[in-house]
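Section 3.1: Structural characterization of target chains.
Under the original work plan, the team committed to producing a structural model for every single-chain target entering the pipeline before any wet-lab resources were allocated. The record below documents one such target. The sequence was received from the expression subgroup and is listed exactly as submitted; it comprises 220 residues.
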Amino acid sequence: MPSLGELRERLVGRFQQVCHRTGMYAPDARAAEVLCRELLEVLAYVDDCEQAYAREMSRRRRDDFGSTGAESMLWWFASGDVQVKGHDLTVRSTGNAEVAAWYAELAALFGWLDVPRLSAHDLASVVTALCDPDRIDAWTRGRLVAELPAASIVVGKTVHCYAPPEPDARWVFVDVLSEWGPPWDRPEAPVRSYRTAGPGGARSAMVVSTLGRQTLTPRG
């Protein structure tokens, strides 16, 4: 019979795998929401912090998505294959990596995901580079890697996550438009959006590139 410590180690390892190879575990945002929520709820039980976790998860869920959950990211994206005009790129967005990245931020807060945190200076350089709607079009995966501080974690090979130095501060997410299928790390892949928490919700706080807008549904 495995001990609670062994169970915790296994669950932590599984969540890390979900973050790194999201598509193998969850085909879309809804599946990612169910899987990540179940993993973290069991970890909260094992660590005897169920109430604290439930409060924080509910607060962030309400702030970011209103009455819906992280799975509502599925509705952000145009369905099916999208041929991006102005770029030789076919994109199929499912929201699975975006959902997993949202839960990764929460998992790191409770010690279930260990990621390097950026200094205040390094985080500011990421924000300055990507939060400007007039400049985001110039960014690609290759430039992210070569010119900016290293991401704390890259979820699903497409969502570059930057963790602030304060454990409870909200992360910065930079989404890359990736061709459907390998190789996943094409340096020329354009940035789709810059995201962080905002008073109007997660989608309202997005800064979206010109190419990225082609892959999103109109805001309701």
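The CA atoms of residues 108 and 114 lie 6 Å apart.
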